[in-house]
Design brief:
- It is a single chain.
- The protein is α/β, with parallel strands linked by helices.
- It folds into four domains: about 1-155, NADH-ubiquinone oxidoreductase 51kDa subunit (Rossmann fold); about 160-245 and about 355-380, Ubiquitin-like (UB roll) (Roll), CATH 3.10.20; about 245-345, no CATH class; about 380-445, OB fold (Dihydrolipoamide Acetyltransferase, E2P), CATH 2.40.50.
- It is about 30% helix and about 20% strand.
- It is built from 15 helices and 19 strands.
- The chain has helices spanning about 1-10, 25, 45-55, 55-70, 85-95, 115-125, 145-155, 185-190, 235-245, 245-255, 260-265, 280-285, 305-310, 320-330, 355-365, and strands spanning about 35-40, 75-80, 105-110, 110, 140-145, 165-170, 175-180, 200-205, 210-215, 230-235, 355, 375, 385-390, 400, 405, 410-415, 425, 430-435, 440-445.
- The strands form five sheets. The chain has a six-stranded mixed sheet, sandwiched between helices. Strands 3-2-1-5 form a four-stranded parallel sheet, sandwiched between helices.
- Helix 3 packs parallel to helix 5 (about 85-95), helix 10 packs across helix 14 and helix 12 (about 280-285) crosses helix 14 (about 320-330).
- The relative contact order is 0.14.
- Bound molecules: iron/sulfur cluster (2 copies).
Amino acid sequence: MGGIIDSIRSSGVVGAGGAGFPTHVKLDTNAEVIIVNAAECEPLLRVDQQLCQRYALELVRTLKTLMAVVGAEQGYFGIKKKYGPAVTALQKAIDSEGLSNNIKIFLLKDFYPAGDEQVLVYEITGRAVPEGGIPLMVGTVVVNVETLLNIYFALNFNNPVTEKYVTVTGAVSRPQTLKVPLGVNLSFLLELVGGTTVFPFAVIDGGPLMGNVIKDKDKFFVTKTTKGIIILPEDHPLILAKNQALQVSLHQARSACCQCVACTEICPRFLLGHNLQPHKTMLSISYLNLASAKGLTQSFLCSQCGLCDLYACPMGLSPRKVNQFLQQQLREQKVKNPHQRKDLTPPSFREYRKVPGKRIIERWGLAKWDVESPLKEDSLKAQEVSLSLKQHIGAPAIPVVEKGEKVEKGQLIGKAPENTLGANIHASISGIVKSRDESVIVIQSI
Ligand code: SF4
Ligand code: SF4
């Protein structure tokens, strides 16, 4: 099995649906269950459901391979029931491979954040991941759909990760899910979808809730974790809420929180039994000295899902940003997460507090952009790509090419440091290395 892990490592596969954790590290273990995360719970994004439909057989076969690698008896696709064609394709593939005893489809309701790893594991296995823990602590490994597909191409064709599927949607002429070389810029994406239909416009990198508004559009380049690009009018309420300055959030937390508890009542981590109660954090910061955040360690448990501020709070406050600030303060003060409870009991009302995806769409007036974004897999030629040497969690890759050097698509250009968490980076187009420093390699097509 070491050969499989080595292939995944050398191909530079990282988590394509989240922060980019190197996949070879995640799979170099023993587990009872592997869950393929196909929940795609952020509204408007389409990548995972489309890949499940298009590559069902490849995904099922690769899941079977990975189950053998980690010794798992059971595999699941966790996917929303509403993604009907994808569900049908997966079931057909499972049946045709004779794997219906070992690989099952778990149908999720349409709620947010069904794709949060801890939520997904609890939904499917009934096991609650300890506070501050990872799914492996309850015998489970979770992989994203596109990650699984990248493993398929690595194992069967020796293909490194050089391309990314990205849903480009919102206020654009032709919303689509594009397969593009890593490192292409925003203009490249927008040209392929016929440009924007509003001006001035803002860009969210990711989904409406967890995605970040891109501050400098000229410095955006597709990475291994880019999942969606959403264009909205610059004055759209969601953009204004996301752009609210941290200082404003902190000030408002002190002055305007009415302690209604709405944020805690729908917090997905609280609903798993974690000691995270954002209304208490909002109260505490009024009294505690923020320069010493040690009394506010429950913020470590926040997943930044965005439900508290972008859905629940009637006062427009942001416990999420406050938690983000506190996490940063605590790390700077070298405070470690003390919350590691394992005996979690999700409250009985959890089921009734789940937030339907369509309510989020209504809340932010996104219905007119909740449209099909057809999958386009044509070979798209880019003139230039800018490849970050850190598209993953861990240490940046070390550049192994020089300025002026000719490179071929798929060639290793950044090597993961030995004995350190990291991932290889490969050229996503053939061309000449136009520039190279410790953080980015730019390749120009010839
Ligand atoms: S962002 Fe808010 S709702 Fe989400 S986990 Fe953090 S505190 Fe809970
Ligand atoms: S929902 Fe808003 S007002 Fe209510 S407790 Fe939470 S932060 Fe305070």
